Amino acid sequence: MKGRVVAVAAVLVIVAIGASALITRQVTGTVFGIGADDRAPSGVRIRVQVLNATATRGVAQRATDHLRDKGFDVVEIGTNREKMDSTLVLDRSNHPEWANRVAAAMGGATVLSRPDSSRYLDITVLIGASWRPPPQPFNP
C-alpha cells in the first residue's frame, strides 16, 4: 500500500512539472508557432509602412502599435484608397525573410515581392478587413 502511494505521488509530481512547462510555453507562444519568427531580428532595423485598407478608422494605428511591440520600425502610417478583405505584406527591399516575419506578426498574411528602390521602406503592410488586432490589456 505504501509503495502505491509513493508511485501515485511520483506520477502526480511528473504530471505537475509537465503541465507547468506546457503553460509556460503557451504563455511565450512557442507551442502555437508564435515565437521568434514573428519578431524583428535583434540588431536589424526593418522599416515598415502600414496602410489601412479598410473602412474602419484607427486600424493602421493599432497595427502600428502591434508591430512596434514586436520590434519593427514603423516609419509611416496612412490610408490606402483601395479597400481589401485580406492583409497583404509587400516586400520592397528583396528581404523575403523580413516580409515573412511581418506576415507572421500580423497573424498570417499573404506576402508578395514588390521591390521598389525609390522608397525608403523595407515592407509595406496593407491591413485588410479580416485582420483582428490582438487584445489589449485591461488597465482600469
Task: Tell me about this structure.
- The chain contains three helices and five strands; from the N terminus they run αβαββαββ.
- Residues 21-34 have low confidence and may be disordered.
- Strand 1, helix 2 and strand 2 (73-79) form a beta-alpha-beta unit.
- It has two domains: 1-32; 40-127, Alpha-Beta Plaits (2-Layer Sandwich).
- It is of the alpha/beta class and 140 residues long.
Key words describing this protein structure:
5 strands, alpha/beta, Alpha-Beta Plaits, 140 residues
The gist of it:
By secondary structure, this protein is α/β, with parallel strands linked by helices. It folds into two domains: 1-32; 40-127, Alpha-Beta Plaits (2-Layer Sandwich), CATH 3.30.70.
**What is the total number of structural domains?**
2
CATH topology of the largest domain: Alpha-Beta Plaits
- What would you say the CATH architecture of the largest domain is? 2-Layer Sandwich
What would the principal axes of the Cα set say about the shape? elongated
